[in-house]
Amino acid sequence: MENINIHKTAVIHRDAKISPGVSVGPYSVIEGSVTIGDNVRIGSHCVVTGQTTIGRNCKIYTGAVIGSAPQDKKFSYDDNVFLNIGENNVIREYVTINPGTLDGGGKTVIGSNNLIMAYSHVAHDCIIGNNCVMANAATLGGHVIIEDNAVIGGLSAVHQFTRLGRLSIVGGCSKVVQDVLPFSMCDGHPAAAININTVGLKRAQVSPERILNIKKAFRILFRLGLSRAHALEKIVNEIETCPEIEHLIFFAKTSKRGLCSAPNGSSAEPVDEA
């Protein structure tokens, strides 16, 4: 096999699809339904199993378990489910990532250019965009959706079916039980919206005028005591539209779990913990 470096103690199933430039470290196991793209580096004592596809140039560190059965009582090993991982991801030590379930659409999807730090967990049916960071021991419940450029602090837990919006930040040790608005900074137990992610917006080259509009929108949502519907109507009527405001409105309108509120109250409707 062309330019493939497999340690003599690694176990590679004959049906696994291994692309050029792949390296596999000592005592790692690659099972038969796995596809690994060009130049992927897999460290020692890793397991890659299930119907898992890993895109090119990913780096997987010691002890990671990728594609093992979901921690879902309804799961059957006869289920036809998948895990798709994009390109240029860094998956650090002892990370666990599960595939989808039949009830959740059948696949877990991770985009490209993400950093998933040591001991983090991505549960079944999660969808992670591009350029996201999960710091050490961050944990996602099932069916979580994370949009592009989001950051989750270490030791944080995200409740199943929750969404994290684009360019949002969750502080370390947070308990996230409701949707995190795009462009927001949330922290706490439970997590609450404390500010907008001004630094992230500037790095994304969002103009000062648009950042000011986002601040105005957050003030309407979280400081005026309005219902979510009335707050969004006020934003539409009073704030100049731009792609960020349009996305913010769409995200808030489609929230099923409610929104992480400001500490002093907001328009976010409470939800049950079930």
Structure description:
With 274 residues, this protein is α/β, with parallel strands linked by helices. It has a domain of 139 residues: UDP N-Acetylglucosamine Acyltransferase, domain 1. Helices cover 16% and strands 25% of the residues. It has 4 helices and 28 strands. It has an 11-stranded mixed sheet. A hairpin with a 2-residue loop joins strand 27 and strand 28. Helix 2 packs antiparallel against helix 3. The longest helix is centred in the last third of the chain and has 16 residues.
In short:
By secondary structure, this protein is of the alpha/beta class.
Q: Which key terms come to mind for this protein?
A:
single chain, 274 residues, alpha/beta, UDP N-Acetylglucosamine Acyltransferase, domain 1, 11-stranded mixed sheet, 9-stranded parallel sheet, 16% helix
Largest sheet: 11 strands, mixed
Distance between the termini: 50 Å
CATH class of the domain at 5-143: Mainly Beta
| Mean model confidence by pLDDT | 94
Rg to the nearest angstrom?
20 Å
What class do helices, strands and sheet pairing give?
alpha/beta
Residue stretches low in confidence (pLDDT < 50, at least 5 long) are 265-274
Strand order of the largest sheet: 1-4-7-10-13-16-19-22-25-27-28
Q: So, CATH architecture of the domain at 5-143?
A: 3 Solenoid
CATH superfamily of the domain at 5-143: Hexapeptide repeat proteins
- Helix share of residues? 10-25%
What shape does the CA trace take? elongated
Give the oligomer, counting copies of the same chain as homo and different chains as hetero. Answer: single chain
CATH level 3 topology of the domain at 5-143:
UDP N-Acetylglucosamine Acyltransferase, domain 1
**Total number of beta strands:** 28
Strand content: 25-35%
The number of helical elements comes to 4
